[in-house]
Design goal:
Length: about 325
């Protein structure tokens, strides 16, 4: 009997030490940091904050958003890719995560991180970027806009969240397809770029619906076209480039990642929590209200989607070439 009790105690002890990091603490036992690699006011922040709040409620542990911007999102992404894989540092990234490692190679700098250093957990949204100008601009539609760009090469500029980011790449795709030239003005994120547009420092932007829809509703900004397939529910009057004969598409998605070495027990728990957060009424209300409806993908489907899109974005970055 004594030997049986001893065996049970040993097994129990092994079970405790077989948890991630050989810790006796159940995960999560302390606050989790969700890194948003852009300043407040952009798509990643608009998605990340309501998702973090829902995750906090579901887990019974704080999920704290930390905006860590710079290098088109590369600084924050790299910080998570290289962080301890214990489930306490997670990343709400945009589709620029597929672009940055290849962009590093193109410009000849050391890669800040590799895609295989991160593991996808869930995709929450996936929206085409929208071409916007100030409401007081002379361009009432895309036809007048592109005519002005072609007639005045280099006279006008566009803002972005940084070189090779999700606001830069679609504009480079458009410039190449439509054969016009605009000056690129990189900011540290979508929020500052939008402020630059409203303040007259830049003439146009390509950005996600959720970061600009309120400015459109307020009559401060005009949407001319978008990079999707079909009309958007949040702005049904805005045509896609495809329907105007311009064959380009670009989606700005937001998804949750962890370091690739994060134990399966934790990633599986995060998948469950992310799925609950995506169906949470508060989350859906906030994100849908921002013009970016939930388009959820669980980890396996998200991985397939991400792999395919990454291959496409690598080709796009190679075509863009080196940007100073």
């Amino acid at each position: 009997m004594r030997q049986k009790i001893t065996s049970v105690l040993i097994l129990a002890g092994l079970a405790l030490f077989s948890t991630p990091g050989f810790s006796q603490e159940a995960w999560p036992s302390r606050p989790i940091t969700m890194v948003v690699p852009f300043p407040p006011g952009g798509v990643a922040d608009a998605v990340g904050r309501p998702v973090a709040e829902a995750m906090s409620r579901i887990l019974g542990q704080s999920v704290i958003v930390e905006n860590k911007s710079g290098a088109g999102g590369g600084i924050g992404m790299a910080s998570v890719a290289k962080s301890k894989p214990d489930g306490y540092t997670i990343l709400m990234a945009l589709s620029s995560i597929s672009i940055i490692p290849e962009a590093d190679k193109v410009v000849g700098r050391e890669q800040s991180f590799q895609l295989n250093q991160l593991k996808p957990i869930a995709r929450f949204t996936a929206d085409p970027t929208v071409l916007v100008v100030r409401a007081d601009s002379p361009w009432k539609d895309y036809k007048s806009f592109v005519a002005a760009m072609r007639a005045n090469p280099g006279k006008y500029n566009f803002g972005s969240s940084g070189n090779y980011g999700t606001m830069h790449v679609p504009m480079e795709m458009l410039k190449s397809s439509e054969k016009f030239f605009m000056v690129h003005v990189p900011y540290t994120g979508a929020g500052p770029a939008i402020i630059g547009l409203l303040g007259g420092q830049v003439d146009a932007l390509a950005t996600g619906p959720s970061s600009i829809v309120q400015q459109i509703k307020a009559g401060k900004v005009r949407a001319l076209a978008h990079w999707g397939d079909g009309r958007l529910a949040s702005m049904p009057e805005v045509p896609s480039f495809k329907e105007m004969g311009v064959k380009i598409e670009f989606a700005q998605w937001a998804g949750l990642f962890v370091p690739s070495a994060t134990p399966d027990a934790i990633t599986n728990k995060l998948r469950e929590v992310a799925k609950l957060a995506a169906s949470d009424d508060r989350v859906r209300s906030v994100i849908n209200g921002a013009g970016s409806p939930i388009q959820y993908l669980d980890a396996p489907e998200f991985k397939v989607y991400w792999d395919k899109e990454s291959a496409q974005m690598i080709d796009v970055v190679k075509k863009i070439g080196k940007v100073e």
